[in-house]
Amino acid sequence: MLRQAVAAAGLSLVIVGAAAVPAFGDSGWGSVQCDQNPHPGCELGAGSGGQPAAPPQNGGGSSGSGGTSGDGGNSGSGAQETPEFSNPDLNLADCSYQRSDYEPPPGVTQTAYEGGPDGGGTAVAVSAVYSRAMPSEVVPAADPQPGESGAWYVYKCEAGGVRDAVYRPPIWIPDAPQQDGGAPQLTSAQLAPVARNQLRLPSPQIQANPADEQLVYLPTWLWLDSGDWGSVSATASVPGVSVTAVARPTSVVWTMGDGSSVTCAGAGTPYGSSRSPTTPSPDCGYTYRTSSAGQPDSAYAVSATVHWTVTWAGAGQRGVFPDMTTTSNADFRVSESQALNNSG
Amino acid sequence: MPSASPAELARSQATTGYLGMWQDMAQAGTTSDWNSPQLARYATGDALSAISRGMYADHLNGLVTKGEPQNDPKVSSATPAANPTTVMISDCGDSTHWLKYRKDNGNLADNKPGGRQAITAEVKKLNGAWKVARFAVEAVGSC
């Protein structure tokens, strides 16, 4: 009995703790911290700002070297998949918005400098391996266009049973075009991009067999962790209107680093040890013809890009957004078969 | 006495602007005065927007910030080399003594300590003044 009571008390403590988690850390930087409140500028960090990107977390990632140094120079097809605001830990699955009286200080809009292709920091951000990527047009909190009608909205979110205790910094949401000179209003079409921006897509976790080293003429199995292959949704609501955006993975394009690419309709079948090593994957595989000797780091720079269709629906309306993509990179070493030494 | 080169001057003034931005944020944060004109002294554009909006949220949530951050900024690049107008700064800031408190009872907002946080900032010269245009602050423990 006592045991049970203690356990119950412990459980309720945990729940209270979870519910009290604020959107902001209590650091003085909490309200501008990129892992809590992504904002334009966070692309400067993206895990590579002045410090090496963290090694991949997936234990099964032995197929990739995890090294970042060589990949920045291989301006592969994934290079445009920045900036990286995505953070699955952010609880943004379900957010409710309300108008605020916020007004930006004058200095926000009087940016006289050219913000364009000034490489300074952004060139660094593309090199992160196993990075979580979102399309570059997705900006978490855009400032209004000059003359644009709309309002600043504060919001609270909930995901995984955790609800924000506090409001997050305001974002700008433009009003719907006014029909008859009436009061400005927010429709599902205005809310749809907000819901899309809440989507947190997982980055693909690259897996392959053989795990350590590929061999020429031996089938390579390619797959992604199945947990990363499924619909992701997010809901944005204001009083009276609610919009849900759904992203669905549709295909993976693997660039193999030797000039070839493979398109797979799904995550791919994980290799099972009961299979013969010479059996090709039933749905996602490749066979190298030449070794990776002579490549940078003697490895092929491989990337897997997941394409997501993004739709939205709410208040009797629906629509489609441009596809989103997420990309991960890995280095594959491919040896001539006489170098076979992976009996383990 | 030799005068500083334009590049040296740029590095020094950009660093001053960068530190000034956090000092101004710390000062305005004591009352969560998100509309303080002081915030625009050394911050502009996206940087100013992020600070002001974040502080508005603090204000709405009944939080204020007390103390000061500690910074250790280093210039990672300055371009164009001869007469820089853009300076990139890498920093490992420390928020151990710069925390959020509840305005109503003066208690800490929560029991999570601050700590070392990696910061990258882009500082630009605007009409002769150096201001932070963009920045990224990573999580506690990131450096």
Would you write up a description of this structure?
The complex is a heterodimer of chains A (344) and B (143). Chain A has 344 residues and is mostly beta strands. Chain A has one domain. Chain A has three helices and 14 strands. In chain A, the strands form three sheets. In chain A, strands 1, 2, 3, 4, 8, 9, 10, 12 and 13 form a nine-stranded mixed β-sheet that branches. In chain A, strands 5-7-11 form a three-stranded antiparallel β-sheet, with no helix packed on it. In chain A, strands 6-14 form a two-stranded parallel ribbon. The N and C termini of chain A lie far apart (51 Å). Mean pLDDT of chain A is 73; it is low at 1-25, 48-86 and 110-140. With 143 residues, chain B is an alpha+beta fold. Chain B has two helices and six strands. In chain B, strand 5 and strand 6 form a beta hairpin. The N and C termini of chain B lie far apart (39 Å). The relative contact order of chain B is 0.20. The mean pLDDT of chain B is 94. Classes of the chains: A mainly beta (344), B alpha+beta (143). The interface between A and B is large, with 56 and 69 residues.
What is the fold's blueprint, element by element?
The complex is a heterodimer of chains A (344) and B (143).
Chain A: H1 2-19, E1 94-99, H2 122-125, E2 150-159, E3 162-163, E4 168-174, H3 188-198, E5 206-209, E6 214-215, E7 220-224, E8 232-238, E9 241-255, E10 261-264, E11 285-286, E12 300-314, E13 317-332, E14 334-335
Chain B: H1 6-29, H2 45-60, E1 63-67, E2 74-79, E3 86-94, E4 98-102, E5 116-126, E6 129-140
Antiparallel strand pairs in B: 1-4, 2-3, 3-5, 5-6
